[in-house]
Each structure stands twice: as structure tokens, then as C-alpha cells.
TrEMBL record:
It comes from Bradyrhizobium stylosanthis. This is Outer membrane protein with beta-barrel domain. One of its GO terms (cellular component) is cell outer membrane. Keywords: Cell outer membrane, Membrane, Signal. Belongs to the Omp25/RopB family. It is found in: Cell outer membrane. The keyword Transcription does not apply. InterPro entries: Beta-barrel_OMP, OMP-like, OMP/PagP_B-barrel.
């Protein structure tokens, strides 16, 4: 009996010493999550901030003066052939911009949903282009002519257009991920831009009528006429809109970093495409940095 008691005491002493030598693992002090959980940041709440950046503007003027040429040649056999002419090109320009943003985050675990409004003002972001085209149109479709008559229309068009984007507002929905002090996000929404757009075109049309006759012996003779102006289809048309609004859509990617407490910085890329104004379409690529505060 004494031997069994002595053996039990010795076994307990050895077990206690062995336990004291084991590493202090988190799983031995509590649940597994106490030692393995990551540090998260509370992104939920209202926020406000400012931003500044760089914009690349791509403006498509290829169809800008089509409406004006259609008006000049309305009810004329020249409207069809000239409606496909592209006088102007696509142009590019660059500018800086600055503005602000305000929004609200809703956080569920690591997922973050946001609704955000932004305003951006552009620094003299204007682009323009000009061009010309000329062609002789022979017997245009739809024209009624006497037998042996050939009408030659010498049409010359000269056009110019200008577009300046002044500022814009956007309403964007964001989807983000809580990466601790970092939050990457994607967004998409609607955009409204304020811009000045102008266009002008000048047409000069001359007509030469040639006459072809055949004598009794089958000999054919063509008599060339003299060129003469066509005042009804010659002239200048212009149009200008100031502070007109263009709706569009926006999408992009961004990353926010919590600097301290509610103060955060962001970097962002944004693509904006506006609907055409007077057949002139503007596309923007914005890169910006921002600084904000979440309440």
C-alpha cells in the first residue's frame, strides 16, 4: 500500500514538471480564435474629404458637324452623299482637377458597401479641332434629270469644333473589403458633367451641267458646261452651347489607408464616359489622391 502511494506521488510530480516546460500556446489559454484572429478596422460610418489629381480627356469630334451639314443640305439630293463625310478627328488633352467627396459606409464583417457623391472641377480642360473635305458628286441619287444631262456638284466643306469640360458630379456605389488598415474597393455609378461645346461648318457648292447628244449617224458628243455657284447649298452654320449638361456613367478602382483613428488617405482611378452633346462625345480618365475623415 505504501509502495502504491509513493509511486502516485512521484508520477504527479513528474507530470507537473513536464507541463511547466511546455510552450505557452494561445490554444492552452483560451479559444483558438484568441491567437489567430486578424486586426480589423471599423470602416462603418459617414465620411468626408477632398481630392486632387490628373485627367486625360479624349474627345471624339468625328460626327460633330453632321447635324449642321444635314441642315444645310436639307431637302437636297446632296444630303445623302455628304451625311457620311467625317471632317473632324478625335483629339486629346490633359489637365489637373480638384474637388471633394462625401459618403456613407456600411460594414458587415469584412465586406463594406458605400454610397458616395463626388465633385470635381477641371483646370481649363479644353480641346478643339478643324478639318475640310471636298468631292465632286456626279448625278446624285434621287435627282431627276432630262436625258443626256449630267450634273456635277463640286462640294467643299470646312468645319471646326471645340469642347471644354468645366466640372462634374458623380453618384457612386462602392464595394470594399476590410483589410485591416487597408480597404481596396471598386465602384460604379452615374456622372453629370457641365461643359461648353461649339461647332461650325461652311459649305461651298458649284454645279456644272454637261450635255450629251447623239446625231443621226450615232455619233455622240458631250458638251461641258461652265461651273456656277449653288447659293441654296452654300453657306455657314454654327452652334454654341454654354454650361450645357451631359449625363454619363463612371467606374473605377481605389485603395484607402487608415492613417490614424478616423483619418484616411486614398488613391483612385476613375473612367467617365459622357453621352454626346451636339454629336461630340467626351471620355475622361482620372487619377487622383485624396484625404478624408470618417466620423
Amino acid at each position: 500500500m505504501r509502495g502504491l502511494l509513493l509511486a502516485a506521488v512521484m508520477l504527479g510530480t513528474v507530470s507537473a514538471a513536464h507541463a511547466a516546460d511546455m510552450p505557452d500556446l494561445p490554444i492552452l489559454r483560451g479559444s483558438v480564435s484568441d491567437g489567430l484572429s486578424k486586426s480589423t478596422h471599423n470602416w462603418d460610418g459617414f465620411y468626408v474629404g477632398g481630392h486632387a489629381g490628373y485627367t486625360a480627356d479624349a474627345t471624339d469630334f468625328s460626327q460633330s458637324v453632321v447635324g449642321l451639314t444635314n441642315y444645310i443640305f436639307r431637302d437636297s439630293v446632296l444630303q445623302g452623299p455628304t451625311s457620311t463625310w467625317s471632317l473632324l478627328n478625335k483629339t486629346n488633352t490633359q489637365s489637373t482637377h480638384f474637388g471633394g467627396f462625401i459618403g456613407r459606409n456600411w460594414q458587415w464583417y469584412d465586406a463594406i458597401l458605400s454610397l458616395e457623391g463626388t465633385y470635381s472641377a477641371f483646370n481649363n480642360m479644353s480641346t478643339s479641332t478643324s478639318g475640310s473635305n471636298s468631292l465632286v458628286i456626279v448625278n446624285p441619287p434621287g435627282e431627276v434629270r432630262a436625258p443626256g444631262i449630267t450634273n456635277n456638284y463640286a462640294v467643299s466643306l470646312t468645319g471646326a469644333a471645340t469642347a471644354q469640360v468645366k466640372d462634374m458630379v458623380t453618384l457612386r456605389g462602392r464595394v470594399g473589403w476590410d483589410g485591416g488598415d487597408f480597404m481596396p474597393y471598386a465602384f460604379m455609378g452615374a456622372a453629370v458633367g457641365r461643359m461648353d461645346v461649339s461647332r461650325t461648318v461652311t459649305s461651298v457648292v458649284s454645279l456644272r451641267t454637261d450635255t450629251t447628244t447623239t446625231d443621226l449617224f450615232g455619233n455622240t458628243t458631250t458638251t461641258l458646261g461652265a461651273w456656277g455657284p449653288v447659293p441654296a447649298q452654300s453657306g455657314t452654320q454654327g452652334q454654341h452651347r454654354t454650361n450645357t449638361y451631359a449625363v454619363g456613367w463612371t467606374a473605377g478602382l481605389g485603395l484607402e489607408y487608415c492613417i490614424w483613428s478616423g483619418l484616411f488617405a486614398r488613391i483612385e482611378y476613375e473612367y467617365v464616359r459622357f453621352s454626346p452633346v451636339m454629336n461630340t462625345q467626351v471620355t475622361l480618365n482620372n487619377a487622383r489622391l485624396g484625404l478624408g475623415y470618417k466620423f
